User: Which sequence fits this backbone?
């Protein structure tokens, strides 16, 4: 699957600044292609998360359009877009993202549970093994470490084998070994045909990425790849 | 989705328990209040029906210290007599339709009853108030020494009770009326005359020099067509010496006004409790939705639509409202139904259980009120929540 952004801009009102309005993302156009891993770098506050939210259908841009395989996603109604996000987009959000009344396994299966669908259990087990959290399947998130939660949220993002994966600093609280494990995993998913976008400060990311982009103050430039 | 709702409720036991308790309290107030009000309403209807006559006339002495009204309305016991000539005198008055005399006596004590009971003797020839009602419980005419007992008395058909040494047979037991008639014994005139005579012989009657054949206690009068009860009452009070006439309706009016006072109070209370419950639930839901902002964002990220999110919150509220509603109603039934008699005593107003059909309707309505209140108080926060952009929520504390 391909995601294409056309001149997307997100403006926020911020009192106290000269113009009052400022663009967290400023006229960005890009394409995420199936089969390639794209790393996004940049200073804190440069607009990485904002861009990721816009591309993943979670935040409507002030102007510009986002297409998934040629379909303008922000022209869809909420129900259709939600369903599409569930099936085609996997998002690993920045920070913690556990539902604390559900177990680790249930958290991972959430994209299936929401639509009352069975399925996914075997893959969930496989993912937990792969990410080293298999023995935590029936534990509540409050008993997990930051890194374990992070891996849980990665498993959840990919449980439906989405065509596009967005990961916002997925290795933020992981050690070197696990960081490598996660990047290997994301790289493998890209190899299987998904379009992967990773926001990361790690230098490792450069090693794995087919393309590297850098954001600064809402603008972005391509550092590596076409 | 349903399993997520249940897991959310189970995963936050304290919050869920508190919310259910609030809903239960609210439901208890609505259910209990409605039931008490209905019981009072039925009590007064029943009393009105039992009183039967438009006007009641009694000796003036009986009206001092409100004895007569106490007997009729509060279930205290007593007796008083006036000359039987008053019956003729009053029946001569213009506008008097039907008229029937009753004789009163009170038992000192009896095997049936821990307390003295009021005995009322009516004249089967002329009676138009008690007979139709007694007929419902007892098909036959009452014979000599036959009595009919009120529902609260501990005696059953076929039992023998003796009053002043006269053994009487219980011929029928009346349905519950919720009024003082539930502790009254009815007989015909012949039987009560025998009882009065016996009490006189034993020196156990407050009146020593009466002739049971020459006295009556109370005259029940219906107005003829074209005359109002008020005219007749005034006529009697003006022209018949040492007799006091009452309009049945005005006796009830006294009760009705204290009843409407009590009912009004109950309604205000229900309203206040309800408002308080709604406000607390509103706050509880707003707080809990705020606390769970991030979780909602996660659901959204994993593919939940806005509608699903607000549905989730509302289903939680629905479950809470339903559980609380059922608990509150059951509690209400547990408290109000077995203790109906106690409530009657405490309020000293006629009080009659309105029947299981009514209770069922009341239960269903209360449940609906509870569920609607729960859903309504969660609606605001859930809608507001689902309208916020997920991207913004996710940034909240990341
Ligand atoms: N909802 C919002 N309202 C106002 N300003 C916002 C909002 N969301 C983001 N911003 C601003 O937009 C800019 C970009 O934010 P964003 O979260 O995209 O940065 P980032 O590159 O992801 O930073 P980090 O590396 O710290 O996560 C920041 O200056 C931020 O303060
Ligand atoms: Mg960010």
Assistant:
């Amino acid at each position: 699957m391909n995601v294409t952004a056309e001149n997307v801009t997100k403006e926020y009102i911020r009192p106290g600044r000269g113009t009052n309005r400022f663009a967290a993302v400023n006229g960005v156009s890009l394409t995420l292609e199936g089969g390639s891993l794209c790393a996004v770098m940049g200073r804190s506050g440069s607009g990485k998360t904002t861009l990721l939210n816009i591309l993943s259908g979670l935040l409507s841009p002030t102007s510009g359009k986002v297409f998934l395989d040629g379909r303008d996603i922000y022209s869809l109604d909420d129900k259709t877009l939600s369903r599409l996000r569930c099936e085609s987009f996997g998002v690993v959000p920045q920070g913690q993202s556990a539902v604390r009344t559900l177990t680790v396994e249930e958290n991972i299966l959430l994209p299936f549970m929401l639509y009352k669908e069975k399925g996914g259990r075997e893959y969930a087990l496989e993912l937990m093994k792969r990410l080293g959290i298999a023995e935590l399947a029936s534990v509540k998130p409050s008993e997990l470490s930051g890194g374990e939660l992070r891996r849980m949220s990665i498993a959840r993002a990919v449980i439906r084998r989405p065509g596009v994966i967005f990961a916002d600093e997925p290795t933020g609280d992981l050690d070197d070994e696990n960081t490598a494990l996660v990047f290997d995993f994301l790289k493998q998913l890209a190899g299987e045909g998904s379009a992967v976008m990773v926001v990361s400060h790690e230098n490792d990311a450069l090693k794995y990425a087919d393309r590297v982009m850098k954001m600064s103050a809402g603008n972005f430039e391509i550092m590596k790849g076409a | 989705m349903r399993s997520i709702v249940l897991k959310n409720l189970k995963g936050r036991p304290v919050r869920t328990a508190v919310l259910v308790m609030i809903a239960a309290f609210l439901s208890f107030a609505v259910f209990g209040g409605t039931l008490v009000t209905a019981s009072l309403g039925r009590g007064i209807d029943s009393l009105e029906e039992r009183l039967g006559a438009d006007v009641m006339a009694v000796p003036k002495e009986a009206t001092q210290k409100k004895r007569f009204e106490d007997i009729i309305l509060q279930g205290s016991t007593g007796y008083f007599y006036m000359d039987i000539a008053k019956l003729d005198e009053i029946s001569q008055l213009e506008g008097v339709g039907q008229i029937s005399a009753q004789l009163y006596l009170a038992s000192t004590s009896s095997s049936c009853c821990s307390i003295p009971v009021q005995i009322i003797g009516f004249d089967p020839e002329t009676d138009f108030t008690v007979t139709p009602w007694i007929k419902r419980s007892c098909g036959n005419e009452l014979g000599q020494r036959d009595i009919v007992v009120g529902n609260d008395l501990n005696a059953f058909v076929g039992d023998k009770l003796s009053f002043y040494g006269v053994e009487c047979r219980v011929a029928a037991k009346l349905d519950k009326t919720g009024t003082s008639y539930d502790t009254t014994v009815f007989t015909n005139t012949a039987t009560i005359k025998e009882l009065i005579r016996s009490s006189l012989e034993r020196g156990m009657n407050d009146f020593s020099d009466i002739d049971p054949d020459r006295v009556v206690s109370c005259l029940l009068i219906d107005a003829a067509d074209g005359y109002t009860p008020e005219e007749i009452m005034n006529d009697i009070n003006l022209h018949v010496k040492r007799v006091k006439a009452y309009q049945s309706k005005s006796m009830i009016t006294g009760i009705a006004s204290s009843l409407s006072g009590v009912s009004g109070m109950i309604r205000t209370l229900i309203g206040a409790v309800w408002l308080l419950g709604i406000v607390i639930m509103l706050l509880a839901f707003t707080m809990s939705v705020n606390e769970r902002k991030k979780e909602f964002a996660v659901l959204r990220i994993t593919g939940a639509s806005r509608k699903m999110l607000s549905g989730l919150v509302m289903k939680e509220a629905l479950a809470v409202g339903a559980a609380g509603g059922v608990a509150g109603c059951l509690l209400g039934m547990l408290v109000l139904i077995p203790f109906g008699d106690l409530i009657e005593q405490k309020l000293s107003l006629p009080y009659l259980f309105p029947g299981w059909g009514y209770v069922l309707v009341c239960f269903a309505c209360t449940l609906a009120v509870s569920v609607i209140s729960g859903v309504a108080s969660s609606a605001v926060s859930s809608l507001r929540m689902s309208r916020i952009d997920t991207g913004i929520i996710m940034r909240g504390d990341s």
Chain A is about 30% helix and 30% strand.
